[in-house]
Write a structure and sequence with these properties.
Strand content: under 5%
Mean pLDDT: 92
Number of strands: 0
Largest sheet: none
Distance between the termini: 49 Å
Helix content: over 70%
Length: 100
């Protein structure tokens, strides 16, 4: 790969990344979305977070996946009750540590 093709590839990746982020901001600032779509879009970060966390819960100890599941349940219960990320994280670590 030559230096010119490398820099063209980097520039192309930058454009492909930049355009989808800026076009909705520039073109859609006056556009109102339907209420059902706004509510649905607000749930996307939670779904993405769950999709990122759940596989990790199952692979804490591949021989004993129930340990990770119980740690996840402990974190979810503490987060639901106290709504504090740090306390939920400590609950998950403690649960997994004790069960391991």
């Amino acid at each position: 790969m030559t230096s010119a093709s490398f820099w063209l590839m980097v520039l192309g990746m930058g454009v492909v990344t930049y355009l989808p982020r800026t076009l909705p901001l520039l073109l859609g600032s006056e556009m109102r979305l339907p209420l059902w779509l706004e509510r649905w879009l607000k749930l996307v970060p939670y779904a993405a977070l769950g999709a990122l966390i759940f596989p990790g819960i199952l692979t804490v100890d591949p021989a004993r996946p129930w340990i990770g599941i119980l740690g996840g349940i402990a974190a979810a219960a503490v987060a639901w009750r106290w709504k504090n990320f740090v306390v939920a994280l400590i609950a998950a670590f403690t649960t997994v540590y004790i069960l391991s």
